[in-house]
Amino acid sequence: MAHYDLEEQEQIDSLKTWWKLYGNLVTGVVLAASLAVVGWQGWNWYKGSQAAGAAAVYGVLERAAGAGDTQKVKAAAGELAEKYGRTLYASLGAMVAARQSFDAGDLKTAKTQLGWVAENGKDEIRDLARLRLAAVQLDEQAYDEALKQLDSSHAPAFDARFAELRGDVLSAQGKKAEARAAYRAAMDKMADKQGASRELLQQKLDSLGEAA
């Protein structure tokens, strides 16, 4: 029994020594792991909460848009951008609000909303915002600003649309050779080789006349 107690005491002393050397490290690792788990769970909860809140506000915006309530649409879009700016709902809301503002003749607000999506949106919706913003700028004869939007990187699926609108801007500037090159690039990128969009593009190209 005494031998067992001695052996046990030696193990305890050995454990105490080990803990004195490495205890702080072990505690730190355990604490860090615990914080990581809690943080991950908290982040998932936060994202879920953000999505739910954004969806509710976007629902209000959609109903307001259906009723033609431009002011309520603008207010809801502003709330989405301010409180839920990282969600897809914020970009969608800004796009809807931009359309409402454009239809109401409020181009300044429409450009602001499209500009927000162009800066903060992601993927396809960002590219659509840049195209629409460039189109509004073309209407306003803000050609340099429009070309700046069209020079931005975008998904390959939008190559034809960016090139065609670039051709429209260059044509409006009287730069026929550059416009012609842009239209031809758009035709090369078009997936639909026989559709109405290609026919319209061909008409634009023909209107520029033959290359000198």
List keywords for this structure.
single chain, 212 residues, 9 helices
Structure overview:
The chain is mostly helical and 212 residues long. It has 2 domains: 30-121, no CATH class; 134-212, Methane Monooxygenase Hydroxylase, Chain G, domain 1 (Up-down Bundle), CATH 1.20.58. It is 82% helix and 0% strand. The protein is built from 9 helices and no strands. It has helices at residues 2-66, 70-83, 88-103, 107-120, 123-139, 143-150, 159-172, 176-189, 196-207. α1 packs antiparallel against α2 (70-83) and α2 runs antiparallel to α3. The radius of gyration is 30 Å and the shape is elongated.
Number of domains: 2
What structural class do the secondary elements suggest? mainly alpha
Instruction: Report, as a whole number of angstroms, the end-to-end distance.
Output: 109 Å
Count the E strands.
0
Helix percent reads over 70%
Number of helices: 9
Major sheet description: none
Task: Give a brief rundown of this model.
Helices cover 82% and strands 0% of the residues. Helix 4 packs antiparallel against helix 5. The chain has 212 residues and is mainly alpha-helical.
